[in-house]
């Protein structure tokens, strides 16, 4: 479940950036954060790192789109 949610969030992040859709990137960020938190709390370090890596990009996209 967490992997599917996180992967969907990463894909959604890229789509939101292309579409300039703030609501979509907010949802994407939430999904990636949830995947990271679940993987981290369950002790899956490599998966947690995988979902932690795109978080700065998702936050930057959100900040950029909100500044428009």
Level of helix content? over 70%
- Spell out the helices and strands N to C: HHHH
The oligomeric state of the chains shown is single chain
What does the radius of gyration come to? 12 Å
> Which spans have pLDDT < 50 for at least 5 consecutive residues?
none
Give me the count of strands: 0
Largest sheet: none
CA distance, first residue to last residue: 34 Å
Secondary-structure map with pairings?
Layout: H1 2-19, H2 22-41, H3 45-52, H4 55-66
Structure description:
The mean pLDDT is 97. This protein is mainly alpha-helical. It starts with a helix and ends with a helix. It is elongated and about 40 Å long. Helix content is 85%, strand content 0%.
List keywords for this structure.
single chain, 68 residues, mainly alpha
Précis, in short:
Helices cover 85% and strands 0% of the residues.
């Amino acid at each position: 479940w967490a992997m599917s949610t996180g992967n969907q969030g990463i894909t959604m992040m890229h789509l939101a950036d292309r579409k300039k859709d703030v609501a979509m990137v907010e949802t994407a960020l939430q999904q990636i954060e949830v995947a990271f938190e679940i993987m981290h709390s369950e002790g899956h370090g490599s998966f947690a790192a995988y979902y932690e890596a795109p978080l700065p990009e998702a936050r930057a996209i959100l900040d950029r789109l909100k500044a428009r």
